[in-house]
């Protein structure tokens, strides 16, 4: 029999505990538990959607944790799934309320599209972040002036105040790496991103210095994929794989596009991208040789 109470999200006395990552990970855990309850009763997504006066696609989004929960919807789904224990119901309903609590990044929602707000929440919750970058250094490893130059390039004509806030958001995201329980970041960056001038020589030099400093962190692995490595399997461009400590949560592959993003969590997709990332890590310079290469690039500037 499947319990309605997600064990990873409650304290020993049954009270809901919000894990690191805030509302995003709570939504994902609650959604995963609702999916298990639905499947245990052999109820289709279409039937579940009808019970809450919604579409099958909304049930899919709820189960993936991509959208906030309404207490009434969760209550109706629990009834449909046969959850009658008052303690279990109250735990799930309390989680639904927690899942609706805005994350710290909500203060920037006038600047951020909804699809990127989802990513910031996932990033905040991740235990491991693996990235491959082609054009820019990854946002979590950008020096402030480099970040400003990259943001100005992407948002041409934006008011200075908006640029300042976007830079502030990026610097705030980087605090993750300072937290005792923060994620491990493993970033493979193409040599072209380091050679391409951005913001002028002084900005470029400071960025390389910043990468050398970041590479010394115990929770950061940095590798450069050099030109001499030749062809590689990441023909689709940059991507990020996020892994979570909670066993209920699947890995997520993030693919950012110009005005939208894709989030892949099907196992076969995750396996494909993980295999590509592993190949890139083998082809790239080792972490030690990467620092040597960064120092050589710095001397050339």
Automatic annotation (TrEMBL):
It comes from the Bacteria. One of its GO terms (molecular function) is DNA binding. Gene3D superfamilies: lambda repressor-like DNA-binding domains. Residues 1-23 are annotated as: Disordered. Residues 117-295 form the DUF5753 domain. This is Helix-turn-helix domain-containing protein. Pfam families: DUF5753 (PF19054), HTH_31 (PF13560).
């Amino acid at each position: 029999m499947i319990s309605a109470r997600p064990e990873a999200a409650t304290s020993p006395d049954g009270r809901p505990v919000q894990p690191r990552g805030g509302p995003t990970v709570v939504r994902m855990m609650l959604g995963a538990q609702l999916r298990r309850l639905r499947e245990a009763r052999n109820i289709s997504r279409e039937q579940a959607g009808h019970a809450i006066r919604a579409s099958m696609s909304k049930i899919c989004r709820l189960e993936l944790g991509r959208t906030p929960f309404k207490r009434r919807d969760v209550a109706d789904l629990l009834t449909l799934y046969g959850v009658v224990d008052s303690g279990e119901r109250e735990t799930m309903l309390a989680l639904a309320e927690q899942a609706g609590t805005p994350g710290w990044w909500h203060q920037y929602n006038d600047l951020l599209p909804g699809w990127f707000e989802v990513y910031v929440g996932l990033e905040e919750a991740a235990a491991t972040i693996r990235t491959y970058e082609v054009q820019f250094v990854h946002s979590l490893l950008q020096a402030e002036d480099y970040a400003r130059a990259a943001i100005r390039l992407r948002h041409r004509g934006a008011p200075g105040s908006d640029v300042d806030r976007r830079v502030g958001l990026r610097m705030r995201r980087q605090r993750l790496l300072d937290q005792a329980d923060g994620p491990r970041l493993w970033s493979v960056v193409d040599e072209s991103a380091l050679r391409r001038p951005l913001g002028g020589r002084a900005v470029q030099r400071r960025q390389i210095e910043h990468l050398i400093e970041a590479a010394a962190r115990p929770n950061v692995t940095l590798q450069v994929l050099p030109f001499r490595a030749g062809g590689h399997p990441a023909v689709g461009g940059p991507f990020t794989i996020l892994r979570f400590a909670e066993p209920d949560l699947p890995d997520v592959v993030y693919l950012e596009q110009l005005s939208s993003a894709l989030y892949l969590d099907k196992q076969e997709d995750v396996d494909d991208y993980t295999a590509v990332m592993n190949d890139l890590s083998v082809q790239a310079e080792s972490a030690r040789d990467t620092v040597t290469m960064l120092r050589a690039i710095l001397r050339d500037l």
